[in-house]
Design a protein that fits this description.
It is a single chain. By secondary structure, this protein is an alpha/beta fold. It has 2 domains: 216 residues, Malonyl-Coenzyme A Acyl Carrier Protein, domain 2 (3-Layer(aba) Sandwich); 63 residues, 2-Layer Sandwich (Alpha-Beta Plaits). The chain is built from 13 helices and 10 strands. The strands form 2 sheets. It has a 6-stranded mixed beta sheet with strand order 8-7-2-1-9-10, with helices on both faces. A 4-stranded antiparallel beta sheet has the order 4-5-3-6. Strand 9, helix 13 and strand 10 form a beta-alpha-beta unit. Helix 2 packs antiparallel against helix 5 and helix 8 packs across helix 9.
Length: 292
């Protein structure tokens, strides 16, 4: 069984999408449609912009979504997943690619998500940190014991967990985690505390947009971030997508569940083709993973 996985923030790169546009009229059409939907030239920033420009949340999230969807479209009949999943933002790409909503509706949701998250980030001094070399329960306990808001946000792979929250709380937790034996507890260059309670204002803003978007039953089950379980019911998918902004990304558990349910091959769709492949190797080194 083939599992298609879609990356989130961190998989962008300067010049992304230009090669697709150069070789495909369909890609050119979709880039033009994206620029029209967003009201600014996303394609120009993707093709010609600097890495700094691409790091802006309002640019990064639509760019990765559009890149993944075009890559899936150009795969044609070869894009025939038995199951899909997406890391954080990538969940929107996975849903659009599997027919849960249209390309345009998904892009509008992603743009609103990015705007809402940016506002939430600006409201509180906040950040994230990557922790390597400790068991999940140790990291969770330190977060609980640290004053302020800091939580486990991304369960990326065994031995790698990202924490998220108020700046002072994340810094203090990172220091404690290093004392507890973490190989690394490194502050990340991100706009704020994604997948934490500090994203609550963004979640409420996104809820309205999601509730006014038409959802269909996807062509195959999507394993969602909040519970690492397969879903096909549009109403449940909506609720999980809303909850995702303040809930942790259970990526380790998602990969384990897909493998347990019969996945024998993974295909990473869009982005630089390296991020999710690398995480999967930490979950199961024998599992085949390609990139398109």
């Amino acid at each position: 069984m083939e599992a298609y996985i879609f990356p989130g923030q961190g998989s962008q790169f300067a010049g992304m999408g230009k090669e697709l546009a150069d070789r495909s009229e369909e890609a050119k059409r979709l880039f033009a449609k994206s620029d029209e939907v967003l009201g600014f030239s996303l394609s120009q920033i993707m093709f010609e912009g600097s890495e700094e420009e691409l790091k802006q949340t309002r640019v990064t999230q639509p760019a990765i979504y559009v890149h993944s969807l075009i890559a899936a479209r150009l795969a044609g009949n070869q894009f025939n997943p038995d199951m899909v999943a997406g890391h954080s933002l990538g969940e929107f790409s996975a849903l659009a690619a599997s027919g849960a909503f249209s390309f345009e509706d998904g892009l509008q949701l992603v743009a609103q998500r990015a705007e809402a998250m940016q506002k939430a980030c600006e409201a509180t001094a906040s950040t994230m940190a990557a922790v390597v070399g400790l068991d999940d329960d140790v990291v969770e306990q330190i977060c609980e014991e640290t004053p302020g808001t800091v939580v486990a946000a991304n369960y990326n792979c065994p031995g790698q967990l990202v924490i998220s929250g108020e700046l002072h709380a994340v810094e203090r937790a990172a220091e404690t985690l290093r004392e507890k034996g973490a190989l690394k507890a490194v502050m990340l260059q991100v706009g704020g505390a994604f997948h934490s309670p500090l994203m609550e204002p963004a979640r409420e803003q996104l809820r309205s947009a999601i509730e006014h978007t038409a959802f269909s039953i996807p062509h195959c089950p999507i394993y969602q971030n909040v519970d690492a379980r397969p879903h096909s019911d549009p109403d449940q998918i909506r609720e999980n997508l809303i909850a995702q902004l303040t809930a942790p990304v259970r990526w380790t558990q998602t990969m384990q569940a897909m493998i347990a349910d019969g996945a024998t091959k993974f295909i990473e769709v869009g982005g630089n083709g390296k991020v999710l492949k690398g995480l999967l190797r930490r979950v199961d080194r024998k599992m085949l993973c390609e990139a398109i």
